[in-house]
Structure formats: C-alpha cells, structure tokens
Amino acid sequence: MNRVGNLLSFGTSLLFLVTGCDRSGSSPEAAGNIGTAEREAAAKLKVCKDPVWDEVAAYRNNVRMAYNSSLFDKLEKFAAEAREGRERFGNGVWRITHFHEALACRDDEPESMWELHDRIHKAWIAAKPESITARVAHADFLTEYAWHARGSGFANEVTDKGWHSFKVRLEKSRKMLEKARELPAKDPVWWKVAMRVALGQGWEKKDFDALVADAIAFEPKYFEYDKLRAYSLLPRWYGKEGDWEAYAEEAAARKDGLGAETYARIVMDLRGFHDNVFLETKASWPRTKEGLKLMLERYPDSLEIRNVIPMMAVLAQDREFAKEAFDRLDGSYLPYMWRKPERYVRYRQWAETGE
Predict the structure, then answer these.
(1) Pick from 243, 195, 201, 198: which is nearest to 215 by CA?
(2) Given CA atoms 259, 88, 124, 70 in this order, what sign does their dihedral have?
(3) Which whole number is the average pLDDT over 187-191?
(4) Residues 58 and 181 in one domain
(5) What residues pair up with 47 in beta bridges, in sequence order?
(6) Whole-number percent of the chain with pLDDT over 90
(7) DSSP per residue over 314-333, as a string?
(8) How many domains does the chain have?
(9) Which of 227, 322, 315, 319 has its CA nearest to residue 279?
C-alpha cells in the first residue's frame, strides 16, 4: 500500500497544491527566486475574502457549536434542512457535505479529544436511535479515527497497534453503516463514507463498483461520489493508466449529472497526485476548460472558483484563458488559495507575457 493515510480525508474546498506548469523550465515556478519587481507587484494585490466561503464558515461554525454542546435536536434540524431540496452553497458544494465535515476531529488533536468525540457520537445515537444523521456521522467519525490510527506513512511504517485499531474501527464503521441503511431516511453522505470504508478494507473491485453504481443511482449530481470513484481508479487502488480519465469522461456524459463540471472537479481533485496532471495523464484540458467555464457561470459569486481557474489554465499552458481569468480577478487575491502573493504575480506575468 502506498502513502495513503489521510488522502481519503478529502475536503470540499477548492484548496489545491499550487504546482508549476511542467518540468521543462517554461513554467512560472521555474523562473527562479522572487525578485524586487514581483514583491512590489504583490504588495499591490487586493486581499479579498470569498463571500461564499464566509457563508460556509458561518454555517459550519453553527453546526460545530451545536455538536460541541450536544444539542442533538438542533443538529437533526440542521441536517434535515440541508438534505431537503438538496441545498448547495454558492460554490456548488452540498450543504449536507459541510454539515458532516463540520463535525470532524482534527488529526493533530490528542487521543483524549478523539475519545471525547466518540462519546458525543454515542450519546447522539442513544438520544436519537432512529436518526440517519447520527449514525452516518458516527460512521464517518470512525472512518477518520481509523485512518488517524493508521497514520499517513507507508504500510511498513505502520505499527501493529496502528493496523489493529485501523481494522477494528473500519469494521465498526461498516456495521454502523449497515444499521443506518435499514432506516427509512437516506443521507447522501452514507455512500461517501461507505466508499471510504470499502477502500480501507480492500473490497473486491466488483463489490466496490456495485457500491459506486448504487451511489450514483441514488444521487447522480452529488459529485463527491465521482471524485472518490476517480480516486479509486488510481493505480494504487483499482485502476491502471488512463482509467480515471476515462471515468471522468463517462461521468461528464451522464445525462442526469452536472456535465463537464464533474470532469473539471475530478481533474482538480486529482491534480495533487501529479506535477502536471495535463502532461502526465490523459486528462483533457479542453474538457476541463469546458467544465471551468460552466462553474464560472453557475457559481459567479465564488472567488475560490475565480482564483482556481487561472491556476489550472497556467498548468495547461493556456495563456489566453489564463489572462482572461486574471483580468476578471483584477488583482483580487485569496491568500489561502495562492499561499504567497508573489506566486499570483508570477502566474499572472506568465499569462501576460509568456515569461
């Protein structure tokens, strides 16, 4: 097994590693050390906040406060409202996804904090034994707890104790999901958690494929399934070269799906596994570009999306599209997207001049 650990703990924000365009020396990252002119240009950027992410953060904070205080009635209300109408935020991410992610325990928390979370989840189920939300949330926690025990190292670096806890907690999560499946209410995150458990337990490919098919039949527009399906087709899991790219095309062609947006989200999600996803894989930049344009139309208020578009365009060495994207930003800069303002400046300069 490769270094996988927390790679299964995918978040939903459009935060990506900012890598260079390629290894040939033509990328912004290959231009050498930061110069005085870049620092001066960086100082003129307009530091902005994303109004969509501010809304998401406020929602997640409210959910977390209710969770920390064991206000289970309030949590049930939050979840029911999120599932009703398949509510989404202004960046296209489902509200129910953020609900569950708001409950997470940070990986750097001490063991005592993980144990406290486990007690809260058990108390929630005891208080609401017929709640789909409580059981999916606990299964999600147990899955994270399993990967926490395993760690993010290579297989031969994991202790016997780590492997034991990993296997025990994943099995507890699987059984929790089985109980949740018997309830009349359904939660789309159930399949997301089940897919992560299946990967961790090393299910047979045919069984994993059946789980994916069931998930997509339940909700074809929930792109979290597609991202995990594509991830599962990396060679470290069930796939071979070209498999995840072929799946991305299949998902984009789904009649009741999101079209090319799904393709773009898959490529963005998996780009961190490559120095340049467009040079090292069969990922299509024209198809990704089509998806990014759709996302820009569908989620015009998301500055995260506006910032990630020029990153992807530079990676694909599409100067014209990158320049258009930077022009739209007009110097607006989301620090957490670019890490350093000088990187924004360097990418923008490449888009404008090719240097």
Answers:
(1) 195
(2) positive
(3) 98
(4) yes
(5) 333
(6) 80
(7) HHTT-HHHHHHHHHHHTTEE
(8) 2
(9) 315
